[in-house]
Amino acid sequence: MHSYTRAESRERRRLFLKGAHQAMGDNLDPRVTRRMHEIDAIAAERGAKELAALERQADAARDAVAAAKAAVRASKWGAERSAARDVLREAEKTLRRAERAYHRAEQS
Fold first, then answer.
1. What is d(CA 66, CA 64) in angstroms, rounded to the nearest whole number?
2. Cystine design at 54: which of 1, 80, 92, 102 (Cβ 3.0–4.6 Å)?
3. Long-range Cβ pairs for the range 79-85 (8 Å, 24+)
4. Structure confidence at residue 27 (pLDDT)
5. Nearest of 18, 23, 92 to residue 58 by alpha carbon
6. Residue-wise pLDDT tens digits, 8-62
7. CB 83: neighbour CB atoms within 10 A?
8. Residue 50 CA to chain centroid, in angstroms?
9. pLDDT at position 91, please?
10. What is the CA radius of gyration of the chain?
11. Predicted confidence band at 6 (pLDDT cuts at 50, 70, 90)?
12. Are 42 and 9 spatial neighbours (Cβ–Cβ below 8 Å)?
């Protein structure tokens, strides 16, 4: 996954157009491709860090769901169990959001 900043996207687009123009004249400057590869490497590293952070977040959400399920099973009937179920529902929603964000980032 690549995660480009706006400035990197602008510079990469500018270098791409410059490289295309130079390639039409068979005079491609190696500095252009080198800089594009540098930008790609930086963005790939940033993307890997973001993906790892999203994975950690999803793991924490899974742990929260497991703890909430245990609280539901251990609670008494009545208001206590109802409150525990509400906590479980919120934990499951958080888990779905975290997993969705992880899978979305993984696909890009």
1. 5
2. 102
3. none
4. 85
5. 92
6. 999 999 999 999 999 888 888 899 999 999 999 999 999 999 999 999 999 999 9
7. 13
8. 5
9. 97
10. 23
11. very high
12. no
Kindly report whether the global pTM for this prediction surpasses the value 0.85: no
Tokens at 87, concatenated:
């906590």
Q: Measure CA 97 to chain center.
A: 12
Q: Are 8 and 43 in contact (CB under 8 A)?
A: yes
Contact 46, 93 (CB under 8 A): no
> 88: which 2 tokens?
């479980």
Lookup result for tokens 């491609």: 28
In this prediction, residue 28 carries a pLDDT of 85
Alpha helices in the chain (DSSP H): 6-24, 30-74, 79-107
Contact 71, 84 (CB under 8 A): yes
Residue with token string 């952070």: 53
Task: Give the torsion sign (CA, 51, 57, 63, 69).
Answer: negative
**Does the CA dihedral 83-86-90-95 come out positive or negative?**
positive
